[in-house]
Amino acid sequence: MMPLSQTRRALTLALLVMIVAALCVLAFRGYLSPEMLLRFANMFYC
Predict the structure, then answer these.
(1) 21: alpha, beta or left? (left if phi > 0; alpha if psi -120 to 50)
(2) pLDDT in tens for each of the 46 residues of the chain?
(3) Beta strands in the chain (DSSP E)
(4) Dihedral sign (CA 27, 25, 19, 13)
(5) Would you say 4 and 12 are in contact if contact means Cβ atoms under 8 Å apart?
(6) What is the pTM of this model?
(7) CB 4 within 8 A of CB 11
């Protein structure tokens, strides 16, 4: 396997970082749904 050039390595790293960031955003948006937040807030008042 041929070694990657410095530019290609940086682009690959940037792509991986963007993919991980997108997955984290989607995971948090799916987990923190408005309904779940309302139930969590009502837990302290009821």
Answers:
(1) alpha
(2) 556 698 899 999 999 999 999 998 888 877 777 777 778 778 877 6
(3) none
(4) negative
(5) yes
(6) 0.58
(7) no
